[in-house]
Design goal:
Oligomer: single chain
Number of strands: 63
Structural class: mainly beta
Distance between the termini: 70 Å
Length: 661
């Protein structure tokens, strides 16, 4: 207790002026007389004569006379209140405002401090408990600090500082300014009895050189209006085995100038072994940070809930929202999120399920992915987004869906853009199932890519529903995945410089439906670029829905359909009577369709072995039978040359693909 400061009147009464002497006199005064007597002066706290541990602070601030007002060391309950005229300014004397030291020698002791209007050089209010009166399963001590009637300011210390031992702590404030605004640390919080409640909705909290609010306890609940910290805005951590963290900042804006806007973590003891029931719950309005806007880390079985739909989250140098966990479930709902690197980043190393909804805003990762999920083991995710923009990939999902689990990605509420990568990439190193439904998706490399490490690690089953426009250097690429892929398109799939479809060696089923009214502008429906099916017994179908148009005549198919190896089947949405001409040779065939209204469609196929038609789909035709049924009528030389060019381009694409794999 060498830093224990007392006021001038008490200091003059201690003849030895030693820490031991101050301790002895303080204990004697607190125990026998209920405190100490003093000469009343401006901005002072005096002990009540008839109530042990009770102090009244009164008198206006006197900047030239005020010094630190100290209570204790004392045993027992402590109550410090202030009169309406009270003020204290110890900035010239260089000390703290009000400080109290309390010995915890009994269970369920109570400390109450109700005051405000304090300016200090060091901590404006400092409460420290000494000893550990509360064993893990005993009743905790109750500490209440209320400064809601006025402002606190510390020049070089903390606005409010509470250093306690396994206690219940409640802090309610108006405006607080300090090097750190509020710091409440339970130094023995491994037991589930410790708790911390901080409510600053009545004012603003500012940390001029450190964090706005620092809280460490078993259970933590923080409610704020505006909070700003030179490092972090709010930093909350729970080392307790059963710890929970709840943060609500919807009444204001949280800013971490050089650090994190809001940080909420379970410590290592919980990270590696916390039980069910522990959780982190963060709900916010606007949050701004440098390295992170919001950053959380939950335990192995701990759940995480984050809701930022009431505001925007920004990280000027790093990740907008970063969610870490050992495997508990996560529910994330966001509005606008912008990160200098990634927008939304979620890491889970166990079997947790993730539900993510960003439809209330736009997610942007300026230099890396807009949304990124990383997982080491099995788990499921359910992601729904509006606009997502990534400096590299728009959305990146790595190794996530677990076997026999179905994960889902739905981006139909907006557009997904990967400026220097893929629009959507699923890099799956654990076999599993995924369903993807999209509207507009674009990437500089692939619009949508499924990656795998065949034959052992891949997405065993994937479905991709295209309701709008998917485009990229390659439209959809599943070439390294050997699982089953079902692609259903009622929109436009486009390869800019590469194939529209570059599919893998598993079983692919591609279904192209009639015109979808959701395409933007004057974009046409269809497949723009070649469709490479790879190996496997693949199926291609053109399907008209009742009440819609005719996909064969209404769509555009300007590339070749290459079935690749094995037996490949195509089913048309028109009857065989619409097939008027065919030409080609070997495994290549060019088909020209025309209906009774003189609508025409031309499609080219390579290495497709089986053909069927809508009027009798159970009857199939081989390539040779089709040539026998439809007489080869010479097409214009330009079309023949075009067909030859398509075949040459497709064969070149095959060779390039084989070289890469």
């Amino acid at each position: 207790m060498s830093d224990f400061k007392v006021n001038q009147s008490i200091q003059s009464s201690l003849s030895a002026s030693t820490a031991l002497g101050r301790l002895a006199i303080g204990l004697a005064a607190g125990t026998l007389a209920g405190g100490y007597s003093r000469i009343t002066q401006a901005g002072t706290c005096a002990a009540s004569t008839g109530a042990a541990g009770t102090y009244l602070c009164s008198g206006p601030a006197g900047v030239t006379t005020d010094v630190t007002e100290s209570v204790g060391p004392i045993v027992g309950d402590v109550t410090i209140t202030s009169a309406p005229d009270f003020g204290l300014d110890s900035t010239q004397s260089g000390g703290r405002g009000i400080e109290a030291y309390v010995y915890l020698l009994d269970e369920n002791q109570k400390i109450e401090v109700t005051t405000s209007n304090i300016r200090a050089s060091d901590h404006a209010i400092s409460i420290q408990t000494i000893g550990t009166a509360s064993p893990m399963f005993s009743l905790p001590n109750d500490i209440q600090i209320d400064t809601a009637d006025g402002a606190l300011k510390s020049l070089d210390g903390t606005g409010i500082r509470a250093a306690v031992k396994r206690d219940y702590v409640t802090i309610t404030t108006a405006d607080v300014i300090g090097y750190s605004g509020i710091e409440a640390i339970d130094e023995d919080a491994d037991g589930y009895k410790a708790s911390l409640r901080i409510d600053t909705i009545a004012g603003t909290v500012t940390g001029t050189g450190g964090s706005g609010i620092i809280g460490q306890s078993g259970d933590i609940k923080i409610s704020t209006a505006d909070v700003a910290g030179s490092s972090d805005g709010i930093n909350a951590s729970s080392p307790a085995t059963f710890g929970t963290i709840e943060i609500d900042t919807t009444a204001g804006t949280v800013t971490g100038v050089t650090g994190t806007g809001i940080s909420a973590f379970h410590s290592d003891i919980n990270y590696y072994g916390g039980p069910d029931g522990t959780y982190i719950d963060v709900i916010t309005a606007d949050v701004v940070g440098a390295e992170f806007g919001i950053r959380t880390g939950a335990g192995v079985y701990s759940g995480t809930q984050i809701d930022t739909t009431a505001g925007a989250i920004t990280a000027t140098n790093g990740i907008g929202i970063d969610v870490g966990g050992g495997g508990g479930d996560a529910l994330i709902k966001t509005g606008d999120v912008t990160g200098r690197t990634r927008g939304l980043n979620i890491v889970n190393y166990n079997q947790g399920s993730e539900v993510i909804d960003t439809t209330a805003g736009t997610v942007i990762g300026e230099t890396r992915s807009g949304i990124a999920l990383d997982g080491g083991f099995s788990g499921t995710f359910d992601i729904t987004t509006a606009d997502v923009v990534g400096g590299s990939n728009g959305i990146r999902l790595y190794g996530y869906s677990g076997e026999r689990n179905l994960s889902r990605l739905d981006t139909t509420a907006g557009a997904v853009i990967g400026n220097n990568g893929d629009g959507i990439v699923v890099d799956n190193r654990v076999s599993g199932e995924i369903a993807i439904t999209v509207s507009d998706v674009s990437g500089s490399e692939a619009g949508i890519r499924l990656k795998g490490d065949a034959p052992y690690y891949h997405t065993s089953r994937a479905s991709i529903d295209v309701l709008g426009h998917v485009s990229g250097g390659v439209g959809i690429d599943t070439s390294t995945s050997t699982g089953t892929a079902e692609i259903n398109s009622s929109g436009r799939i486009e390869g800019r410089g590469g194939p529209a479809l570059n599919l893998g060696d598993g079983v692919e089923r591609v279904t192209i439906f009639d015109e979808y009214k959701g395409l933007r502008g004057d974009r046409q429906q269809g497949i723009f670029g070649s469709a490479l099916f790879g190996g496997g017994d693949d199926m291609l179908a053109f399907v008209d829905i009742a009440g819609g148009g005719n996909i064969l005549y209404g769509g555009v198919f300007d590339g070749i359909f290459d079935g690749g190896a094995d037996i490949d089947t195509v089913t048309f949405s028109v009857g065989i009577d619409d097939l008027k001409f065919q030409t080609g040779g070997g495994s290549f065939i060019d088909l020209l369709f025309q209906d009774e209204d003189n609508q025409r469609a031309r499609l080219s196929f390579l290495d497709f072995e089986v053909f069927a038609f809508a009027d009798n789909p159970e009857v199939t035709y081989t390539l040779g039978e089709l040539r026998t049924l439809v007489a080869p009528v010479p097409l214009p030389a330009s079309l023949l040359l075009f067909g030859s060019a398509l075949v040459a381009l497709t064969l070149t694409s095959r060779r390039q693909r084989q070289t890469k794999t």
